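Memo to structure team: turn this sequence into C-alpha cells by end of day. - J.P.
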Amino acid sequence: MSLHYLELTTESPRDLVPRFFDETALTYDKIIRWTTFGKDKYWKDEIVKKIPPSDSILDLACGTGILTRKIAQKFPNAKIIGIDVSKSYLEVAKIKSKLEQNISFVRQDAEKLNLNSKFDCITSSYISKYCSPKVLIESCLKHLKPGAKIILHDFLYPTTEVALKFWNLHFKVLNIVGYFLPKWREVFIELPKLIRSSNWLDEYEREMKKNGLTVEIQYLTWKSSAILTGTKII
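Reply from structure team:
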C-alpha cells in the first residue's frame, strides 16, 4: 500500500473539499460532463423527476448550479436556494444562472445549515461521500416540512465484473490526463480512492430510517451511482 493512500485514509473526506474545489470552478461543468460521458446530465434529470410539486427547494453543495438550474426550470414559480461552501463555485453559479430569476445562492456549510426556513424538498448531487450521515440528515430535517423529501445522489464503487473493469480503466486514463490538467490532477488521483472507501448509501439509508423517513433507492448506470430518497412522514 502506498504512502499516498495511507495519507488519504487518515484524513476526513471533508478535508478533500478545498483541495478538490478551490481552483476548479471555471472548468467544472466541462470536466464533469466529459468524465461521466454525459451521464451527469442524465443523473441530474433523474433527480429532478423525483422532486414532488414544491413551492420551495434547497439544493445542497450546488457547485456551479447545474442541478439548481434544472430544478428552477422545472419549477419556475418555486423559491430555489442553492448553497455551497466554495466562493468561487458560487460566483460561477450566479453568472450561469442569470436567466433563472427564482434562484438565490448562499454561501453556507450543508452540515451547519442556518437558513431560518423550511423546504418542500432538499436535493444534492455528490455531497454524501464528504459528509457525516448523522450530521447532514439532522441538518436537513431542521429545514424540512412535514411530508417533504431529501434526495441525495452520489457515485458508487461498481460491484459487477464488467462495470468494475471499465471503472478502473477509466480512472487510469484520468490519472494520465491529470498531467495535462494540473488543477484536476489531485481530484483524478484521490476521487477513486474516496469512492472505493465510501459506504455512503448504506449509511445514509440507515440514518434516514432511524429518523423515521421512508426510503427509496434508484441505482443508475451499472450501479456506478445511486439516488437515495427519504420522505418525512407527516
